[in-house]
Amino acid sequence: MPLNESTIVAMVRDRPGVLNRISSMFRRRNFNIVSLAVGQSEQPGMSRMAFVVNGDDATVEQVIKQLRKLIDVASVSLIQEDTMISRELALIRVNGTASTRGEISQIVDIYRAHIVDIAPDSLIVEVTGDEDKVQSLKNLLNTFGITEMIRTGRVAMVRGMAHVHSNNSGNPANRAA
Amino acid sequence: MKLTGGQIVCESLIKEGVEVIFGIPGGAILPLYQDLPRYPQLRHILMRHEQGAAHAADGYARTTGKVGVAFGTSGPGATNLVTGIAAAQMDSVPTVFITGQVARAAIGKDAFQETDVTGITLPITKHNYLVMNASEVAETIKEAFYIASTGRPGPVLVDIPKDVFTEEAEFSYPESVNLPSYHLPQEADPREIQAAARLIKEARKPLILAGHGVVISRAFEELMQLAEKAQIPVITTLLGISSFPEDHPLSVGMPGMHGMAHASLAIDEADLLLGLGMRFDDRITGDLNSFAPNAKIIHAEVDPSEVHKNVRATAPLIGDLKKTLRKLIPVVEPKSHEEWSQRIAELRMEHPLMRPRTGGALLPQYVMQALSKATNGNAVIVTGVGQHQMWAAQHYTFTQQNSWVTSGGLGAMGFEVPAALGAQVGRPGSVVWSVAGDGGFQMTMSELATLAENNIPVKFAIMNNGYLGMVRQWQDIFYEKSYVATHYTHNPDFVKLAHAFGIHGDRVTKEEEALPAIRAAMEHPGPALIDFVVAEEENVYPMIPAGGAVAELMEEPV
Q1: How far is A131 from chain B (nearest CA, A)?
Q2: Does B179 touch chain A (CB under 8 A)?
């Protein structure tokens, strides 16, 4: 079966150690996480986490089921690519002097990114978008020399009316359920 | 009513119906122990090692169906529990472990006897807690018992700092738990029930694979009804042993690595497998690509994550097994499979478990048959892991429901001594035999003192071959008899050892001594031990090498 990247969103109880429980399960079961993002959700006491997981359908199905088994995980859903809005944010520190700043600034504008800090020999670029956009900007800035980068990992939501439910049909995890 | 955290623990345990606690005190848990005398309804059995406490709680839980409880102190007390917790997790045994922790202010400071027990046990518990306030103790214990005993059962650990035991809080025991994020089992999908019934109707060579889930959900009657109504032969997995009487005409035996050849060959020929409360473990399937090549699969299982994990099910029935079977049985049509039963009988004839042998050293298989005969298949048999376990599984004829306690998933040597203790405490009226290897026995034999102290009448049958027998067998078969570090050249005299602990001891070296010795041990009112000096280099057959296909099955050499 082909390997692919799948986006999984989980609602979890906002409790000490919950991230540890989840990451420990991923490690123990040898699941491959590409990225993980976590933060407050709209519900008090609950956090929403987004995972990007690399694996075939059977692996993704196991990831979802194993997540659901954790006592602190309230719901899990797989987000289908065609209905997904996904973004990540990156901060990139790039070498830049008075002579190169202009060129960098042009590139940043094209990507609708922002320069958020300027020092005599470097600047920090903030970019938001899907991974391809972030990756592509990073590749361009590489020619100036990137000295530091931090990325949040993917956060994702379902478009419009196709809300996130833990039991949408069509999930590999629900073929069994 | 204001109580201390320790008193709240005791009150909560009583509310949960706990009668017995296995444990050992220590500094951090001492305040809880000092509260115990106020609660005489809580019987505490002082063990000799926390591993023993954990396995005893496990054995108790398996034989009673109640939640087993063990106490340990912080640091080494808690780490000693770990093997027992992992065993309970792998075999889905409802258990609650309460550990003392260093005082709150000392947590994270590498204090004396501090370990991060919730961290250590995170991957080997169903859930765990560190309770930081006395006011949270009651609710946490309520949740712990609820989680341990519902759905797919498992161990829950509650770690409580020393000063939480002494802190006062208002006590009222919650009526119910508030755990919206905990998913209880669903009911099996009615469409899948119909699909399963259709598959059974169409099948010509169906087989039931009955697992531990039958025992856990107490679905003995339902399994019998299904098997008899559709005349489906029943294979029992290692942990499914004693879910179906082995003297029943539909009983086939155990499959897998050391299962009966005819059972493994039947799976190979079957056109339908009904996996009931089992998880298609690697010891059963071997090579997944060649497992049951002709079979469709109905998989009835309480844990959704087990379905499609190792094998793809045609009809997944997710839910409590007893409820699932109760829905399935009425829609299954009565059938007979005479040709198929005939075929299995033929396979059984062609592949006897053991050829008759005369002369030579005492054979462990014979000891198991003698034990079976002396107890009429009615004893509770407890084993650790290894050759003795396989011989017991193969040669003891189990006729009693839920009379088999073994360390299956974890495969923990030493389980057999304390788990038998717990089993006997849970079933005071039953004859409990611990079938042990000389290796495993020596890992936990300190619990003989606990047995003697409490006059818990467990009987031990040590299959003493002077080797870590199963490891030696692998060295024999896969490493050209290079017996590295498996030979015990100086075992203790187990009979003298029994006497030193103050229990009945006997030695058997010949076949004709076996039955009388077994009967004498059972007539003895207290704990008893028999040292069976068995053939040193006897191997367990049949054997399918790890990850192998049925075609690679090795039978007893001529």
Answers
A1: 31
A2: yes
Its domain, for residue A117, covers 85-155
Determine which one of B90, B257, B260, B470 is catalytic.
B470
> The CATH number of the domain where A145 resides is what?
3.30.70.1150
Mark yes or no for CB contact B123/A65 under 8 Å. Answer: no
Active site includes B301?
A: no
Task: State whether A72 and A108 are in the same domain.
Answer: no
Asked whether the beta carbons of residue B179 and residue A17 sit closer than 8 angstroms, the reply is: no
Predicted confidence at residue B1, as pLDDT, reads 87
What pLDDT shows up at residue A173? 42
Q: Are residues A125 and A79 in the same domain?
A: no
Tokens found for residue B274: 């009904």
pLDDT tens by residue, B60-116: 999 999 999 999 999 999 999 999 999 999 999 999 999 999 999 999 999 999 999
- Interface predicted TM-score of the whole assembly (ipTM), two decimals: 0.92
Q: Quote the pLDDT of residue A160.
A: 82
Q: Which CATH superfamily is domain B364-540 in?
A: Thiamin diphosphate (ThDP)-binding fold, Pyr/PP domains (3.40.50.970)
**Given a cut of 70, is residue A140 above it in pLDDT?**
yes
Estimate the crossing angle of helix A57-69 against helix A18-28, to 10 degrees.
Answer: 140
Residue B317, min C-alpha distance to chain A (Å): 8
Same domain for A22 and A43, yes or no, is yes
Question: pLDDT tens digit string along B511-526?
Answer: 999 999 999 999 999 9
Q: What are phi and psi of B110, to 5 degrees?
A: 55, 45
Query: Is residue A175 predicted with pLDDT exceeding 50?
Result: no
Mean pLDDT of A73-86: 93
Residue B118: pLDDT band by 50, 70, 90 thresholds?
very high
Burial-class residue B331 by CB neighbours within 10 Å (0-12, 13-18, 19+).
middle
CB distance from B118 to chain A under 8 Å?
Answer: yes
Q: Which residue's entry shows tokens 């002369």?
A: B359
**How confident is the model at residue A16, as a pLDDT?**
87
Closest Cα in chain B, distance from residue A62 (Å):
6
Q: Could B318 and A177 be called an inter-chain contact, meaning their C-beta atoms sit closer than 8 Å?
A: yes
Does B408 contact A at CB distance below 8 Å?
A: no
Q: Which of B130, B147, B308 is the closest to A71 by Cβ?
A: B147
Q: Where are the alpha helices (DSSP H) in B273-331?
A: 282-285, 321-331
**Residues A60 and A112 occupy one common structural domain:** no
Which CATH number goes with the domain that contains A36?
Answer: 3.30.70.260
Q: Taking the alpha carbons of B326, B241, B431, B449 in that order, is the dihedral positive or negative?
A: negative
Say if residue A106 is in the same domain as residue A125: yes
Q: Which CATH superfamily groups domain B2-170?
A: Thiamin diphosphate (ThDP)-binding fold, Pyr/PP domains (3.40.50.970)
Which residues of chain A lie closer than 8 angstroms to B183, CB-CB?
A: 68-69
> pLDDT at residue A176 above 70?
no
Q: How far apart are the first and last CA of chain B?
A: 74
User: What DSSP string describes A114-145?
Assistant: EEEEE-SSEEEEEEEE-HHHHHHHHHHHHTT-
Confidence of residue B356 (pLDDT cuts 50, 70, 90): confident
Q: Check CB contact under 8 Å for B181 and A24.
A: no
Closest to B279 measured CA to CA, from B126, B90, B121: B90
Domain spanning B190-350, CATH class = alpha beta
A29 touches chain B (CB under 8 A): no
CA distance B422 to chain A (A): 28
Number of domains in chain A: 2
A170 confidence band (pLDDT: 50, 70, 90)? very low
Residues A11 and A27 grouped into a single domain: yes
A144 shares its domain with A169: no
CA atoms of B26 and B33, how far apart (whole Å) = 9
Please give the pLDDT value at position A64: 97
- For the CA atoms of A11, A17, A22, A26, what is the dihedral angle to 10 degrees? 170
